[in-house]
Amino acid sequence: MEKSEKKEYFKTDEYEDFFSNWTKLYRTIKSYILNKDKDDIKWSIIFIFMTLQNLFILCLRQSNNFSITKGEAKLSYKNIKYTIIRVYNNIERYEINNVNSNEKKISIKDWYTLSSKEIQNILEELGIDKKISEKKSKEINEQFNYLCNFSELYKRVKLDDFMKMYVNSKPLKSVQEYDYSIKKINSFRNNFIHFAPQTWFIELSGINNIFCNCICIMEELICETNMINTNYPIKEKWNEAIEQIKELKQELKLLL
Question: Among 24, 198, 215, 242, which is most exposed with the fewest C-beta within 10 angstroms?
């Protein structure tokens, strides 16, 4: 009898993903600061984006994914665009708002608990005759579970509704310089990932300031919002990351 081949697995989660990205970011920015290697700028931008996204998710995600997912789906019928929004508030079953003659928003309570037949009944009550199959219902549920984009996650970590979950927790401060830096990092990263042939000139003093602001945001998310459990999975790993963040912040400030 042939011996069965042993399978190997790679395990990760949002915490491990953060530490992995942070380690790469720390090494890359240190190389940029010490060696003045301009090639490190591109990789620093990519790792800053990934590390910030990790922290946004760690702050927002609690017992479920409601705070980090879009929670809406699109449906078209007879030239009318419907946006179906998942809600958990005290509406009876659904609410409908007319955006304009060609667009409507439907808030449906506890979408996850509804079968395709129940969804169909609601749509029929709204005058929508489109039949919703189990497959289509599953597709719409998948749309609900799409992760919010980077800009939306950043917006949410600044809102009380998402960040004041505990007695001592609070949102990220709204700072104009932070907003600008987040917008530029997002734009740079998207251009690098979806690269079209072109020549770029990136002002070093500007990029240094953007890097410094992003590191400051990381420090505030971890140390001031009280929305991240820095005892899990290993407290010492968080302590090391916090010290490295403070170190990079001071070194980047010297470059400004």
Answer: 198
